[in-house]
Amino acid sequence: MAEFKQSTKLHNVLYDIRGPLLEHATKMEAEGHRILKLNIGNPAPFGFEAPDAILVDMIRHLPHAQGYSDSRGIFSARTAVVQYYQTRGIHNIHVDDVYLGNGVSELITLSLMALLNNGDEVLVPTPDYPLWTASVSLAGGRPVHYLCDEENGWQPDLEDIAAKITPNTKGLVLINPNNPTGAVYPKHIIEGMVDLAEKHGLVLFSDEIYEKILYEDAVHVNTAAVAGERALCLTFSGLSKAYRICGYRSGWLAISGPKHQASDYLEGINLLANMRLCANVPGQHAIQTALGGYQSINDLILPGGRLREQRDLAYRMLNDMPGVSVQQAQGALYLFPKLDPEVYPIESDEKFALDLLKQQRILISHGTAFNWIRPDHFRLVTLPNVRDLEEALGRIGEFLASYKP
Known about the structure:
The protein starts with 19 loop residues before the first helix and ends with a helix. It is an alpha/beta fold. The strands form four sheets. The protein has an eight-stranded mixed beta sheet, with helices on both faces. It has helices spanning about 20-30, 50-60, 75-85, 105-115, 130-140, 160-165, 185-200, 225, 265-275, 280-290, 300, 305-320, 350-360, 385-400, and strands at about 35, 100, 120-125, 140-150, 155, 170-175, 205, 235-240, 250-255, 325, 335, 340, 360-365, 365, 380.
């Protein structure tokens, strides 16, 4: 009988956040074990609920959301996205420059497929959200990872970016606030990246899904606001994190900059958007209500807020563990701790995470799953309530105290 194999296009495509470790955890759950999953930034399982106004508005629109929408998305939602960016000082985005998607993930893949030829290069941060690396590879491109400097608060290294630009480089990815590190980029860093994009004719891909989840005095600067008409900028954001509705799959892509120089590329994006017909229509109806209403995320990130307290607890407890250090997150929902290689000479961080799962029933993501260059980090989701997070971190500390790689 014929043997059916996966496409060779998948040979360099990895997404280990939902890879072998999660499969092993699922098997353990089937055997009756309770697993605390700290591997995915999914607020719902940890008691974070969608704002009531969004639920009510979606329910009211369900009778009118049974058919396809415009392939870009419903007009009212796209208008709300445009108006939101106008409040951020971005005035060169129009309604037809906005595409609604089944989350940001779909739109990332779509935009890269429309741009890249085989062998084209895209600069992607390390560490990164691995969908970016995977999507570049799937589109036939080659991801080239530029360094984010841990000693400098995980900020992008502009010199490293410049050194890695070649005639084949077509795009530059920013993830701000960053997943997995929680870094928020200051304006001068973004200006440096825009300068490089303008000089070398690169498309800026700005992943800003965590833009509303900021702590203390962190300020989010939209890449499109800095780029203006100097460089083509594709901004990705949505409702999944700040509004706690990951399952509604409600994201958007907003295109700004010198669009007249990219008419052929934009035609490709439009073609692919048409081919998928449209995004989930009920989820589109959440956008106008969310962007125009009360911003409940502020209650969670200000002093005394749940997200703020959980982040602070995790930061303190991790740094108190021998051989562990972590930079404080300025935004997002994660910490990216470092394991001192002198204390923990780990050769495989995936095995480290698997050992933790087997011994303590805690699922984390290993650092190389985020295309980090050494097996000396892991990502911790800070979504559990303080009591559960304190218990989990205590068990991680116990594990480390006796761990022998």
